[in-house]
Protein 1
Amino acid sequence: MTTTHQSQQSPYIKVKRSRIHGTGVFAKKDIPKGTKIIEYVGEKITKAESSRRSDAQIESAKKTNDGAVYIFELNKRYDIDGNVPWNTAKYINHSCNPNCEVEIIRGHIWIISTRDIKKGEELSYNYGFDLEDYEDHPCRCGAENCVGYIAAEDQWPKLKRKLARKKSRKK
Ligand SMILES: [Zn+2]
């Protein structure tokens, strides 16, 4: 049997090469703040399956140096593994100064604009990573406030302390 999943479409976006990292998602037209731009789709999996896959992804990331993680927490019982070909939203890059956020609305994961976005701008959101293995996830978003690694904003003070300690050790 062949899968009949179609690539996730949205009138707001187009996918092309990004200066941040690999492939990115860009605004095809002006997008007002608060727009549900595209759903982050994937395979619904249990927490047990999710941690198995996360471990596998981390292992392969160490080998390929590709820190891609596509698993999203949906609720207490299930996660979404977005590493499927039809999930267009997986191409959205992380930024330290993002223009979108992720919101779970009635069991669906949505990418929503947090400000007005101009046609041609690259879409981004904060991946919200904790600091475990942060060194595997360097950030090249280019934002003025870039903290150098992909990390949730509430982790930034802690990250900055870690980086300062590392720097002083090198001297
Ligand atoms: Zn950054």
Protein 2
Amino acid sequence: MKTVVITGASSGIGLEISRLLARKGFNVLGVGRSEANCRRAEEMILSGNANAKFTCYVADLMQQREVVKVADEILSYLDGNCNGELHALINNAGCVRSWYMTTEEGYEQQFALNHLAGFLLTYKLLPALKKARGRVIMTGSQSHKGIRIHWNDVMLRRRYNPLTAYKQSKLCNILFAKGLNDRYASAGIRAYVVDPGLVNTDIGNKETGALVNFIWSLRKRHGVSPEIPAKTYAFLCEQEPTPEGLYYYLCKEKSYSRQVTAENANRLFGLSERLCGIHYGEVQSL
Ligand SMILES: NC(=O)c1ccc[n+]([C@@H]2O[C@H](COP(=O)([O-])OP(=O)(O)OC[C@H]3O[C@@H](n4cnc5c(N)ncnc54)[C@H](OP(=O)(O)O)[C@@H]3O)[C@@H](O)[C@H]2O)c1
């Protein structure tokens, strides 16, 4: 049985991916920030399918020490139960903020959760991914287009715009996936980004101000059910031979921003390593 880790598995798109992959016979390890929502997700998935394998770990992925802690818990589970192998890691947890808010490390929250959490978690789980010649899938967004990385003020401390921060974090998702492929495709690890489209979830109604809350409540009504994008994640987890593309929408490759260059991917890799206090290293040392 192949094991898949999914962050943000306690609601929205991540919950549907978990349900679908569990139904397809994967051993699914979810991560969510709230104990209550994690237990609720387990109940929803397991009550609908007695044979499903789904466990949800609790961690606030905005805080780097919690990313490290949950990664260690997952690694010890994989070592004990899965021969140390991880077939896929889906970095899906994400948030929207209305104001400049920071994490324990003093990092802007959308940048920290939407990009850095996945960057650090992937680093920690890389040996298990390498062992399984695994796949890393990021949840991106069409909104990554029409924006650049603000290299001189990546947290947008000087002039904060919540939408710019969100879009930039989604551009980071593709740059990170490209950076991973450039470094580790030769070790059999492949990275992808899924554009889920507009999806009817509560993302804009959590910890946001009245205006964002109101706009999102109207906008999400036009969104599709999370069951629609879940199929693209399942496709990328199951497809053999391993798909060669980078950016996918509805199970098909899609074009992405011209900002996605090797130079920008490298630069973001280096910056993210510094912000997480890690160094990914060479393929041989994995
Ligand atoms: N909805 C859309 O139209 C859309 C479009 C493009 C991209 N996306 C992307 O899709 C991804 C999933 O979003 P969604 O729409 O499914 O929203 P969602 O329903 O709010 O799901 C977000 C998930 O992340 C979890 N989460 C939030 N903060 C966390 C933290 N600090 N630590 C750990 N987990 C945390 C949430 O936990 P709780 O259950 O406790 O809230 C939930 O499980 C995000 O990356 C988002 O940017 C969404």
